[in-house]
Amino acid sequence: MEGVDFYVHGYLPIHIGEATVYITTSHVCLAIVVAVIFVFAIVANRKIAKADPCKAPSGFLNVIELLVETLDNLVRDNMGKILAPRFRNYIGAVFMFIIVCNLSGLFGLRPPTADYGVTLPLGIITFMLIQYQGIKWQKMGRLKGMFEPFFLFFPINVISEFATPVSLSLRLFANILSGTMIMALIYGLLPKFILWAWPAALHAYLDVFAGALQAYVFAMLTMVFIANAADIQEEN
């Protein structure tokens, strides 16, 4: 459509044999997101290192403490006391990465999570963790569970397992891509004078609310799937 820009552009061609691949908008935006998270981590680390343990935290340290405590409690409530210490760093990193990617649309970037090449690897990593934790804690019980409630369900159970990374990645990708396309259509087709105010409400919903919600859903499903695969019985 003329006048509509979906923010997908190729910048730098790279020739590999007879094939040509491009550094695209998604690569550039992904690099910016990673750089922002990296800078935030360095600043947070230095603030924590310089903090006086005898004084109550304030300002930026309060924000860091709130983030850490919220994520710790979320992971512990969903994964239990045994798994939580092993996965709070991973869940925290995934949640922060996805939410920053999703919110990047507020600053004129194309959200990297609107590219399936970003969300699929996240789903595959989660899938591998699910299988590893299931085998680690259940051992042969993990394989036995593939034949339950009886052996004819084995093909269905296998399909269900491999559907997990696809459903996780597609849910995140489709929701963020749809929001990106809606905003592109609005900015490309509506009269300019309307764009001074009305898109703000859509940004609040599509970027802030939907973006935060999808990051939460991905992190929550990751925790639930891993905890269910491990099936650790904890004592009260």
Please sum up the structure shown.
The protein is mostly helical and 236 residues long. The protein contains 6 helices and 2 strands. A hairpin with a 2-residue loop joins strand 1 (10-16) and strand 2.
Describe this structure in words.
The protein has 236 residues and is mainly alpha-helical. 71% of the residues lie in helices and 6% in strands. The relative contact order is 0.14.
Secondary-structure topology with pairs:
Elements: E1 10-16, E2 19-24, H1 25-50, H2 60-103, H3 116-138, H4 140-145, H5 154-189, H6 198-230
Antiparallel strand pairs: 1-2
Helix pairs in contact: 1-2, 2-6, 3-5, 3-6, 5-6
Which labels suit this protein?
two-stranded antiparallel sheet, globular, 6 helices, 236 residues, single chain, 2 strands, mainly alpha
Order of helices and strands: EEHHHHHH
The SS-based structural class is mainly alpha
Mean pLDDT: 83
The shape is globular
Radius of gyration: 21 Å
